[in-house]
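tool_call: predict_structure(chain=1)
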Amino acid sequence: MSVDLTTKYLGLDLAHPIVPSASPMTGNLASLRQLEAAGASAVVLWSLFEEQIVHDEEQALALAEFHSDSFGEAVGGYFPTLQDYNTGPGEYLKLIRDAKEHLEIPVIASLNGTSIGGWLRYGKLMEEAGADALELNVYLIPTDPETTGAEVERQYLDLVMALKESITIPLAVKVGPFFSSIPNMATRLIDAGADGLVLFNRFYQPDIDLDALEVTPNLRLSHSDDLRLPLRWTAILKGRVLGSMAVTSGVHTAQDVIKLLLAGADVTMMASALLRNGPGVLTDALEGLRAWLEENEYESVRQMKGSMSQSASPDPAAFERGNYMKTLVTYARPGV
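tool_result:
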């Protein structure tokens, strides 16, 4: 009997629930084609950053106005009008068009930003370039003590509403795990217009170089142990949030995929595993998922999805404080 691996995410029908998330692996057509060949059911393109868009537009404006106030013949600038230039991140829009032309799987574009501004119109341009859906990655780190939690939440919601007003394709919002009430914020994001959530954004932590006495970027790829935080919240949110749910932290193996589906995820997204091991790791995970379903006599992904979420669990406290106490009581020090 053939197992049905299909799933639905953001209204898109996918062949199975394993999707490469935004990373350098999804930033060029050659690697996108490799991912499709390895079995990817969709792809999330490498993000286009708010800062990149703003910088490009400022550079174009400076060029157009170069010495325009110095000579009469330079009124309006020395260069042709702005519409004659590719002033925005045209390469990203080209990547979307090329991906849609050469791939047979859905292509999800990605915007990364924190403020409401003109850059949000690029969501519409991505839609016009052919993107099947859009993922908004809100990478916001509040550092002002005067900024309240309510103000931070409002910024998220305003961003979602502003972007949703400009597009008709589905919108997913990638968020971090640091809200005081994740279920409340998840519900409000859906109410603001998001069609789904991506759990969770990994906020990369800088390091200090003791020799140079400089703050340095420090990228650490995830491991399967990082799965536990999104696993818990996926299980809690399943049945409480109406939109789609994707998980993108700590997905490395078929076992990781299976756990998240049981918890209630619609799709599981890989980044670190692909960067570390290449596209073949996706093929292995897909084959492992199929084998597990057959061995455990499941007919479909749909049948297993959410069967171990909190709302379906005979022991809902397993995802709450009861599990915390049980863990402490039953822990035995190694060697004892």
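agent: The domain at 7-311 is CATH 3.20.20.70 (TIM Barrel). Proceeding to next step.
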